[in-house]
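If you are new to this repository, start here. Below is one unmodified record pulled from the training split, so you can see the exact layout before writing a loader.
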Amino acid sequence: MEQESKLPEQIKIEVETAWLPEQISKEQNKYAFSYHITITNHAEVAVQLLNRYWLITDGNGKISEVAGPGVVGQTPVIQPGERFAYKSGAILDTPVGFMQGHYEFKSHDEQLFKTPIEVFTLSVPNSLN
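And here is the target side for that same chain:
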């Protein structure tokens, strides 16, 4: 059971972001960003990603929440030592914003647990001093 309680810490989540200036016309006054997520399973058991939750805050403090099953239409099973990666995106009203959240996983014995995703920044280059 000790192994089970450590599961949230044994799932490593890495995030890389990019601004996508070509995705939105200047007239729309919006800012498009991509984020590339890599999930690595450092546990000794397989886990399945069931749900995602995102809290998105733009530079004006406007908050959006996104929740639902899987990621990009998938609920992958990640074996011990393996990685799962995907890309998705967000559109903001401001050139700077922040995202944070969690993934909900299920272990081999049906135990549900959440792994937090630390706050990361979405920003147009040179918009932060």
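Two things worth knowing about this chain: The two ends are 47 Å apart (CA to CA). The chain has a mean pLDDT of 93.
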